[in-house]
Design goal:
By secondary structure, the chain is α/β, with parallel strands linked by helices. The chain contains ten helices and eight strands. The protein has one domain: Alpha-Beta Barrel (TIM Barrel).
Length: about 300
C-alpha cells in the first residue's frame, strides 16, 4: 500500500516521482491541501516567500501562479541562478511544487497589468519542458482572470504536453472560473464531456471550482464530476479561485466541508487573500476542517530536514 501524503515527511515528499505522488495523494482520502502563491508580488512577510508562509500554515503542495519561465522570479527567495529557482523553493518549503501554465497567447487582459499574459507563462511544450527540467512536480493548465483560456485550448495543449513531459510531471487541467469566456461560465466552466475529454487527452488530475465559489456550481454538480473522474482513473482538485480565500473563517470552513462531501482528493486555496496567497488563518482553518488538528499541526511542526 502507498504511504499517505499526510504521513510523509519533506524528504519523502520532494523525492517522489509523479506516480508515487499521485498514489500518496489518493491514499490520503481527501486530506491534501494545495496553496497557490504568487512570487512576483511583495510577500506578505516581506522577506519570506509566500510559499514558505503557506507551507508553515499546513499546505502540502505549493502551486505557483504568474511564474514566468523567461524571467523566473519569487520574491523573498535567496539569490539563486534562475534555473535553480524551483529547486531552491522546494528545498526551503519541503513541498512538491506545481506551476500554472495558460493555453492562450501573450498580451491577453491588457487592462490589468498583473494578469497580462507573457510568453513565459503560456502553455507551450517549451515551457513545459523547462518546468520539468527545473524540478516542477505538476503542471496545471488553467486560466487567470480575463486571459481567454478556453476548454478546447486546454484539450489540445494536454495532448501536446502528454507527449512531451507526461512521463515526468503530473498533468492537471480545468478552470476555477470562466477566465473571461462568457460562454464557459457557471456549469459550463467544466462539464462531464470536458472531464472525459481531458482525461482521455492525458490529464492525471482534474481541477474543478469548489461548491459555492462560482454561481451555479453546487455540491451535487461537483460531486457528479468527481465521481466521473475517479471512474476514469483520474484524481480531482476542488479550487477556491474567486478571492474567497480571503473570506471569513466560517465561510472557508463551510466551503471546505462541501468540498469534502464531493469526494475530492485535493483542496486548493487560491492566491488572493490580499494578494499573493490565501489568508494564513484560512489555510489553517481549512486544514483543520478537513483533517483535524493532529494532521494540521503535524504538517506545520515537522522540520523540513526530516
Amino acid at each position: 500500500m502507498p504511504k499517505r501524503l499526510i504521513s510523509c515527511v519533506s524528504s519523502e515528499l520532494i523525492s517522489m516521482d509523479k506516480h508515487a505522488l499521485l498514489a500518496a495523494i489518493s491514499a490520503s482520502e481527501g486530506r491534501t491541501i494545495a496553496c497557490e502563491t504568487i512570487g512576483a508580488v511583495q510577500p506578505m512577510l516581506i522577506d519570506v516567500t509566500n510559499a514558505e508562509f503557506a507551507a508553515s500554515q499546513g499546505a502540502d503542495l505549493i502551486l505557483l501562479n504568474l511564474f514566468d519561465f523567461d524571467r523566473p522570479q519569487i520574491n523573498g527567495l535567496p539569490p539563486v541562478a534562475p534555473e535553480e529557482t524551483v529547486r531552491e523553493l522546494k528545498r526551503l518549503t519541503g513541498r512538491p511544487i506545481g506551476v500554472n501554465l495558460e493555453p492562450t497567447v501573450p498580451g491577453q487582459n491588457p487592462d490589468d497589468p498583473l494578469w497580462e499574459m507573457t510568453a513565459g507563462r503560456c502553455a507551450t511544450v517549451e515551457n513545459a519542458r523547462r518546468a520539468a527540467d527545473m524540478g516542477v512536480d505538476f503542471i496545471l493548465l488553467t486560466g487567470n482572470p480575463g486571459t481567454g483560456v478556453r476548454n478546447d485550448a486546454i484539450l489540445s495543449t494536454l495532448r501536446a504536453l502528454r507527449a512531451a513531459v507526461g512521463d515526468r510531471v503530473i498533468l492537471a487541467a480545468g478552470k476555477m472560473h470562466a477566465s473571461g469566456i462568457p460562454s464557459e461560465a457557471g456549469e459550463r466552466i467544466i462539464t462531464a464531456a470536458d472531464v472525459r475529454a481531458f482525461i482521455e487527452a492525458g490529464a492525471d488530475l482534474i481541477l474543478l471550482p469548489a461548491p459555492g465559489t462560482v454561481p451555479g456550481i453546487t455540491t451535487e454538480y461537483v460531486r457528479s464530476l468527481v465521481v466521473l473522474a475517479h471512474e476514469l482513473g483520474a484524481l480531482t482538485m476542488t479550487s477556491i479561485g474567486t478571492s474567497q480565500e480571503g473570506a471569513d473563517v466560517d465561510t472557508i470552513r463551510r466551503i471546505a466541508l462541501e468540498c469534502k462531501m464531493t469526494g475530492t482528493d485535493i483542496h486548493h486555496l487560491g492566491d488572493a487573500g490580499y494578494a499573493g496567497m490565501a489568508l494564513p488563518e484560512n489555510i489553517f482553518a481549512y486544514s483543520v476542517a478537513v483533517r483535524g488538528v493532529r494532521h494540521t499541526y503535524r504538517r506545520m511542526a515537522a522540520s523540513i530536514r526530516r
